[in-house]
Amino acid sequence: MELKDRLALVTGGAQGIGLAISEDLASRGAHVVVADINEDGAKQSAQALRDKGWQASPVRLNVADAEEVQKVFEGVAKEHKPLDILVNNAGITRDGLLIRMKEEDWDRVISINLKGCFLCGQQASKQMIKQRRGSIVNIASIVGVMGNAGQANYSASKAGLIGLTKTMARELAGRSVTVNAVAPGFIDTEMTRVLDEKVREKLIEQIPLGRLGLPRDIADCVAFLVSDRASYITGQVININGGMLM
Questions:
Q1: Cα separations (Å) of 75 from 12, 79, 80, 112?
Q2: In 3D, which of 37, 135, 47, 124 has the Cα closest to residue 81?
Q3: Alpha-carbon dihedral angle through residues 30, 21, 96, 103, given to the nearest 10 degrees
Q4: How far is residue 20's CA from residue 143's CA, in Å, rounded to a whole number?
Q5: 31-36 and 56-60 as β-strands: parallel, antiparallel, unpaired?
Q6: Catalytic site includes residue 154
Q7: What's the Cα-to-Cα distance from 76 to each of 6, 42, 44, rounded to whole Å?
Q8: Among 54, 73, 106, 154, which one carries the catalytic annotation?
Q9: Distances from the Cα of 194 to the Cαs of 8, 111, 212, in angstroms?
Q10: Nearest Cα residue to 84 out of 35, 133, 23
Q11: Which of 63, 185, 41, 166 is nearest to 124 (CA)?
Q12: pLDDT digits (tens, 9 = 90+) for 129-178
């Protein structure tokens, strides 16, 4: 129970990697606020955590809406206490080749994946600075480091998130707030399960460990980064990709 009495908020926490992170943090004693734009999904996931004897609360959150973000973060602090942990996990894809990509698809991905992390990080920072402690983990991506054809918007958002992470780390270090990024490779989630089997096989051929990652591979790393064991780690990008990028 190394995270006992810690309050954590996970964006996009109702499914996939976000749910795995929520489960892991809750299992270690944290009270997890499952924040998701899908309010019903957030309620169901939070209830599933409570059914296991863990502490969890649901909240609807559109990370791209500045007013809603401020309201939710202030509400969480008022109902519980200031945040100890923020995991910026919410993200979407709108894939397409550069020359055909619609402007609205570019704007939407940047708004949620990058602006959303800025807005949530800003609100969490205000709370953490006052208590002179806290941990923020931003979920980036392997494609934010190496790029990927057909994902100009997604790659740009995740590369921008890495730069944001390092700047936040420098600004908040003086108040003992750590900020790190985790960059997953290809993870076995609903997003990758819709891929054609031949495409999946070609992906796996590029991974030295010979398999797609699992959501818990990401959750384990996040749990370490927000724990006291990682108190001297900040401004880092942890790549979890089975060796696909070295």
A1: 18, 6, 8, 21
A2: 124
A3: 0
A4: 21
A5: parallel
A6: yes
A7: 13, 15, 19
A8: 154
A9: 31, 24, 14
A10: 133
A11: 63
A12: 999 999 999 999 999 999 999 999 999 999 999 999 999 999 999 999 99
The answer, as to whether pTM is greater than 0.85, is yes
Structure tokens at 150: 């057909």
Residue 36 and residue 54: Cα distance in Å, rounded? 19
Compute the Cα dihedral for 168, 171, 172, 174 and give only its sign: positive
C-alpha distances in Å from residue 130, one per residue of 83, 122, 127, 174, 175: 11, 13, 6, 12, 8
Among 36, 28, 15, which residue's Cα sits nearest to residue 54?
A: 28
Rounded to an integer, what distance in angstroms lies between the CA atom of residue 116 and that of residue 109?
Answer: 10
8 beta partners: 32, 85
Q: What is the pLDDT of residues 27-58, one digit of tens each?
A: 999 999 999 999 999 999 999 999 999 999 99
Q: Is the dihedral of CA 10, 127, 6, 135 positive or negative?
A: positive
Residue with tokens 């606020």: 33
Length of the chain: 246
